[in-house]
Amino acid sequence: MHRYQVGETTQGIGNRYGISKTRVADVLCEHGVAIRRHGLSDEQVNEAATLYAAGKSLAWLGDRYGVSHTTVAAALRRQGLQLRRRPGWM
Question: Of 37, 51, 48, 57, nearest to 76 (Cα)?
Fold first, then answer.
């Protein structure tokens, strides 16, 4: 709980202990800790779109902004950006 309360993300805590960020959030909620909603600012979305178009991956962008790759993907889709196919996916 302390790590989260001092600013570490659920993703970061989950990575540290080998569990999902969802499980971290569940445990925090069970202990009465309010979960922060950490999305991307408009400025970050614009920058992410530029970096993605230049070839950076969703995972790389997620690490850069401290959010999951799915958060980045959702933000880019809301901006109307067509996402690249993932390698190995049909």
Answer: 48
Q: What does the alpha-carbon distance between residue 55 and residue 2 come to, in Å, rounded to a whole number?
A: 36
- Determine the pLDDT at residue 23: 92
Instruction: Tell how many helices (H) and how many strands (E) occur in the chain.
Output: 6, 0
Average pLDDT, the chain: 88
Query: Cβ-count burial of 32 within 10 angstroms (0-12 exposed, 13-18 middle, 19+ buried)?
Result: exposed
Helix, strand, coil content of the chain in percent (nearest 5)? 60, 0, 40
pLDDT per position as a tens digit, 2-40: 888 888 888 889 999 999 988 998 999 999 988 877 688
- The token pair that represents 64 in the structure block: 């850069």
Nearest to 45 by CA among 30, 64, 17: 64
